[in-house]
């Protein structure tokens, strides 16, 4: 009986080591959103599943939401949206974003957005310009410059708003 229990436990451990660990290490990783820089679409404590494989097969695209290590601290993670791509000129002026001289239309943001700050730069090879959706509250490429591709962990694949949905269904009398 004890031998059977031991074998079941051993089988479970081996299964985890062979399946779960590689999946989490190379393909998917869970995260919680902390902070308000991506509101109104991503809120504090939203749960994310990050796809770590896609950017090994293709280049990141404008508008994608990514998780990455900021260039100034490799121990923490940020979530932002890709605005500028390698080789592009990014300019922020009078609250608007221009890519190679043309105003950027951000269809993924469903209202007119004002982007504070003044910036003008040309992105190098493997450099991206990232911004939070909540531009007034975001610490992003406007402050610390371009993000190198090597710091990108992955793109948001699945997004759960656990607390937002809980608040909708809970009434306080």
What does this structure look like?
The chain is α+β, with helices and mostly antiparallel strands. The protein has one domain: Umud Fragment, subunit A (Ribbon), CATH 2.10.109.10. Helix content is 24%, strand content 30%. The protein has a 7-stranded antiparallel sheet with strand order 1-2-11-3-4-9-10. The protein has a 4-stranded antiparallel sheet with strand order 7-6-5-8, with no helix packed on it. A hairpin with a 2-residue loop joins strand 6 (96-99) and strand 7 (102-103). The longest helix has 26 residues, at 2-27.
Strand and helix layout:
Layout: H1 2-27, E1 28-32, E2 47-51, H2 54-57, E3 65-68, E4 78-84, E5 89-93, E6 96-99, E7 102-103, E8 119-122, E9 127-131, H3 141-144, E10 147-148, E11 152-160, H4 162-169
Antiparallel strand pairs: 1-2, 2-11, 3-4, 3-11, 4-9, 5-6, 5-8, 6-7, 9-10
């Amino acid at each position: 009986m004890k031998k059977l229990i031991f074998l079941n436990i051993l089988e479970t451990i081996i299964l985890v080591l062979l399946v779960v660990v590689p999946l989490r290490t190379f393909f998917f990783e869970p995260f919680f959103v902390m902070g308000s820089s991506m509101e109104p679409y991503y809120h504090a404590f939203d749960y994310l599943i990050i796809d770590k494989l896609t950017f090994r097969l293709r280049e990141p695209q404008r508008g994608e939401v990514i998780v990455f290590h900021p260039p100034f601290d490799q121990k923490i993670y940020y979530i932002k949206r890709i605005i500028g791509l390698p080789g592009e000129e990014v300019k922020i002026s009078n609250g608007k974003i221009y890519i190679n001289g043309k105003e950027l239309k951000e269809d993924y943001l469903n209202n007119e957005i004002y982007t504070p700050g003044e910036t003008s730069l040309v992105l190098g090879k493997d450099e991206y310009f990232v911004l939070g959706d909540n531009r007034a509250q975001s610490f992003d490429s406007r402050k610390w410059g371009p993000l190198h591709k090597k710091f990108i962990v992955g793109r948001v694949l699945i997004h759960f708003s656990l607390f937002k949905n809980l608040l909708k269904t809970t009434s306080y009398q």
